[in-house]
Write a structure and sequence with these properties.
Layout lengths: L2 H12 L2 H21 L1 H23 L5 H41 L1
């Protein structure tokens, strides 16, 4: 660990647990946002969206008695949407935590 990391760890250790949690949520939110805007993140989000669209198109054409096929397609849609929601939730949680930190700083 280099000096800036050590300083950061000491600074975080000095914070109360609630503030430390908020700082961690802000950091995760920023990392998720940076990831989504990276080439890899844009590719992954595009693949997830495409997977969802393709599965929905296939689902619209499945005969109603093909329960297993319907279940497989619904799971593909659910998995894609769920993964996207994790990233969205991290970003929203980070924004919320950032707002809470701002209130703590201005409330003191």
């Amino acid at each position: 660990m280099d000096a800036p990391d050590t300083d950061l760890q000491e600074l975080l250790a000095a914070l109360d647990p609630t503030t430390r949690t908020l700082v961690a949520e802000v950091d995760l939110g920023r990392q998720a946002k940076d990831f989504i805007h990276s080439d890899l993140g844009r590719h992954l989000v595009g693949c997830l969206n495409q997977e969802c669209i393709l599965a929905q198109e296939e689902l619209a054409k499945v005969w109603p008695w093909r329960r297993n096929r319907i279940r497989v397609l619904q799971n593909r849609i659910w998995r894609s949407q769920f993964m996207l929601s994790w990233l969205r939730d991290l970003i929203l949680s980070g924004k919320s935590a950032d707002g809470a930190l701002q209130e703590v700083e201005h409330g003191d």
